[in-house]
Write a structure and sequence with these properties.
Strand order of the largest sheet: 5-8-2-1-11-13-14-12
Radius of gyration: 19 Å
Order of helices and strands: HEHEHEEHEEEHEEEHEEHHEHE
Number of strands: 14
Structural class: alpha/beta
Distance between the termini: 50 Å
Strand content: 15-25%
Helix content: 40-55%
């Protein structure tokens, strides 16, 4: 047998061996993964992420997927002749746009993800926040008029736990029932994932995005901050290190940890197998938030 082949097999065995204590640590625990937006645009990477989720489920980890789909919503709005509108980075959602959001997220994106998980050997079920009143919301308060954009007021974990107990990976679209007004509300998927992780008392919240994580200098990916405590976040904001679209993502992680989720992570979904590197190796990747 050639030496290089033997070494290659040894390296593979060492990788599997390194994963063992992590499999034992997370077996039977719940991990909430938010996946969506730009990180979903590569079909090849999306397939790899779904494959990693199947693997995690097969080794006994309860995985809950919360997804967005902003680019897909924009595409459909353009098809029907409606220009997407944003107010300070948040999608303005009138009734017509809300219909498109529901159709795209609950009717297409979630179903496609569940189908792909099934093709790769997993068991998945597509849910929306409307199913079983999983997510309840009220109209978002604020100085800007955003239409049917909601703030979550309650998470009902029963539909999720029923799916998990049946061996299914829930794939949840971030649409919520109106608290008392009969409306549907568009919910930021990062916020939905954070609230769901809190309600499920999850072991981890993972936000898969299209950046390496929290960077000291946004122009240089090698300035990644691998570990952040909650006490450090206000100073990172004050110093200008934490700015722009990263602020709401970090706020979601902070809220999850503050409410009892032991660890929250921002990972680069463009990196192949970033989930497995973070969860099943000593190396880790991205930025981790903890108390």
């Amino acid at each position: 047998m050639p030496l290089k082949d033997s070494l290659s097999k040894m390296e593979k065995a060492e990788i599997i061996s390194e994963a063992l204590p992590y499999i034992q640590r997370y077996h039977g625990k719940t991990i909430v993964i938010k996946y969506g937006g730009a990180a979903m645009q590569s079909a090849q990477l999306c397939r790899q992420v779904m494959g990693d989720i199947v693997l995690l489920a097969l080794v006994g980890i309860h995985v809950v997927v919360v997804h967005g789909g902003g680019p897909e919503i924009n595409e459909m709005l353009v098809k029907i002749g409606k220009k997407p509108k944003f107010v300070k980075g948040i999608r303005y959602t009138d009734k017509e746009t809300m219909d498109v959001v529901q159709m795209v997220l609950a009717g297409r994106v979630g179903k496609q993800m569940a189908q792909l998980l099934g093709e790769l050997g997993g068991k998945a079920i597509s849910l929306s926040g409307m199913d079983g009143r999983l997510l309840t919301a009220k109209k978002q308060d604020g100085e800007d008029e955003l239409g049917l954009v909601g703030d979550i007021t309650h998470v009902e974990p029963a539909p999720i736990t029923l799916a998990l107990n049946g061996g299914y990976t829930p794939v949840i679209s971030s649409i919520a029932c109106g608290e008392a007004d009969g409306e549907m509300y568009n919910i930021n998927a990062d916020i939905a994932a954070s609230k769901i992780a809190i309600a499920l008392k999850a072991e981890k919240l993972i936000l898969l995005t299209d950046v390496r994580g929290l960077l000291r200098d946004a122009s240089y990916e090698d300035t990644l901050i691998p570990t952040v405590t909650l006490a450090e976040v206000p100073m990172l904001k004050k110093s200008g290190i934490l700015t722009g679209g990263m602020i709401p993502k970090v706020d979601c992680c902070v809220e999850a940890v503050r409410q009892g989720v032991p660890r929250a992570h921002i990972l680069d979904g463009r990196i192949p197998h970033s989930l497995l590197v973070e969860l099943m190796s000593d190396e880790g990747i991205g930025s981790m938030f903890l108390n």
